[in-house]
Design brief:
Number of helices: 11
Largest sheet: 7 strands, parallel
Helix content: 25-40%
Distance between the termini: 35 Å
Shape: elongated
CATH architecture of the largest domain: 3-Layer(aba) Sandwich
Radius of gyration: 21 Å
Bound molecules: NADPH dihydro-nicotinamide-adenine-dinucleotide phosphate, oxalic acid
CATH class of the largest domain: Alpha Beta
Structural class: alpha/beta
Strand order of the largest sheet: 8-7-6-9-10-11-12
Number of strands: 12
CATH topology of the largest domain: Rossmann fold
């Protein structure tokens, strides 16, 4: 039987790792780099940015494997309804997101943004050391990443709450579901972490009304998408002292313009969308397994529900 063609359209350096894994572990599959000729008859595409004319370029396409967890950058119409969209769920991507969320919440819990600001100003000023047990963390989104971050934070002794669309029962985590439960969820949260997908329902959710429901001096961690945040509302909340600090891995414009008010803000720690990235070797193994399942007529994991948008 001829090997099944899987087209790879992304970074060449990471692609070298993908080629190595496919060559060593999947003789039944042929990973080929994007070219119009290779794409024309292929059923499987691995990409973060598919070509704009996908339907014309890949008329035989069955499955698009998105090289990341979020799919908000993809146009459902351009992909076409007949194509399955599979998002990345990768243990290494989850692990590095958990590291980042721990880093950010610990920084807020131990007042690191205020100490960095004081050091810049030449001030030596101790603040009270508080217990993790008194610092409630709220996680917006209890999916693959939110659940893993919640478990790690609970393991450090933080009281942890999570908010999702559908009700959940998770050991050691207080859970809330749906818009009506949002005010209760926010009440008393000292660090709020956004790990939601960006959809019509979640766009702009981090706004002045939400900040007003948090206790004075709370911190925000946005690792979801820039579109979740109303940036002017955050700048105002930081300037008024309603929020003490923000850790932002994502912004509406990436990279932000030089004079971006949040990027330059003394109580914002901003990183260039690096909280977590797909690890090429483990990601390649996810795709190998999914292609084999699809080829054999079995259901694949992590297929995006196109009506929900995540
Ligand atoms: P999942 O799809 O596994 O989880 C999404 C969670 O959000 C689910 O719990 C879901 O609820 C909840 N949710 C969705 N819509 C709503 C809503 N309207 N109201 C309440 N809850 C809602 O996603 P992941 O955990 O894998 O990833 C989350 C996001 O993290 C990605 O979409 C991406 O934007 C971001 N990300 C950022 C990275 C970075 O480097 N900064 C890296 C990777 C991902 P339910 O469970 O009920 O469906
Ligand atoms: C992702 C990301 O969604 O890197 O995977 O943001």
């Amino acid at each position: 039987m001829d090997p099944v063609t899987v087209v790879y359209k992304s970074d060449a350096r990471r692609g070298a790792v993908w080629h190595g894994v496919f060559a060593a572990e999947a003789p039944d599959l042929a990973l080929v780099d994007w070219s119009p000729e290779a794409a024309a008859g292929a059923r499987y595409l691995v990409a973060w940015t598919p070509p704009g004319d996908l339907a014309r370029a890949m008329p035989a396409l069955s499955v698009l494997f998105n090289l990341g967890a979020g799919v908000d950058h993809l146009s459902s119409a351009a992909i076409g309804e007949a194509v399955s969209l599979v998002r990345m769920v990768d243990p290494e991507l989850t692990r590095s997101m958990v590291e980042y969320v721990l880093l950010a919440v610990l920084a807020q819990h131990r007042d690191l943004p205020a100490y960095v600001e004081a050091q810049r100003d030449g001030r030596w000023e101790a603040r009270p050391v508080r217990r993790a047990a008194d610092h409630t963390v709220g996680i917006l989104g209890l999916g693959v990443l939110g659940k893993a971050a919640a478990a790690a934070l609970a393991g450090l002794g933080f009281p942890v709450r999570g908010w999702s669309a559908s009700p959940k029962a998770i050991d050691g985590i207080e859970t809330f579901a749906g818009r009506a439960a949002l005010p209760c969820f926010l009440h008393g949260v000292r660090s709020l972490v956004c790990l939601l997908p960006l959809t019509d329902d979640t766009r702009g959710i981090l706004d002045a009304a939400l900040f007003a429901a948090l206790p004075e001096g709370a911190g925000l961690v946005n690792v979801g998408r820039g579109g979740h945040l109303v940036e002017a509302d955050l700048a105002a909340a930081l300037d008024s002292g309603r929020l003490a600090s923000a850790v932002l891995d994502v912004l509406a414009a990436e990279p932000p313009p030089a004079a971006h008010p949040l990027f330059a803000h003394p109580r914002v720690i901003a990183t260039p969308h690096v909280a977590s990235t797909t690890h090429p070797a483990t990601a390649a193994r996810q795709v190998i397994e999914a292609v084999r399942r699809h080829r054999d007529g079995l259901p694949m994991a992590n297929v995006v529900d196109r009506t929900r948008g995540y």
